[in-house]
Target: WAT1-related protein
Amino acid sequence: MMKKVNLKVWGWISINALFGIVLAMGLHYYGLRATNAAYTVNFLNVIPVVTFIIAIILRVERLKIATCPGKMKVIGAAICVGGTMVISMYKGKLLHLWPTHLLKPQLQSVGAASSVPDHHNMLIGTLFLAGSCLSYAFWFIIQVRVSKEFPSKYFSTMLACVSGTVQAVVIGVMLDRRPMAWALNWNLQLLTVVYSVIKWPVAI
Model:
């Protein structure tokens, strides 16, 4: 199978990993850190709409508004945007599915308090989340090209994970070289990493 992975195929797989793993997930978590969960989820809900619009602009998909499928696509996009607006405006009671102490950093010293995200930089956070939304959209579109160049989905997913890991490590070292930044503890951070590892291959 590796004999079929030429430079062109590896290039598309690497681009797929860049948008789907490094940029989409990385920018999303940075945006979440700068804003809050309720605000962040709105951008996840508009990913299908953004993907739909970009696919039409790039002519990957044709919008035939006169046909029934075309009308259903427009209606689905409108429902998606409407649902996002409802979620953003709705305010209800908090629902905790796990012990609340997992959501709070266990800080014992005053010096460690500076590492707590302030969730107040909405402008930067919005830019990160918008970038993540666009990255997810391009990731879905690029997968179409990857499947044409290399039809083996499971093997291409494995190669994308390898490429994305290498890219993420390189960028991570460039952003933060402190050993403590790479340490994982038994808290929500570890659960987030495990969930992300499981979610990405399943999403493909």
Remarks:
- Residues 65 and 71 are 5 Å apart (CA to CA).
- The radius of gyration is 19 Å.
- The helical segments are 7-34, 37-45, 47-57, 68-89, 122-149, 153-175, 188-203.
- Confidence is low (pLDDT under 50) at residues 106-116.
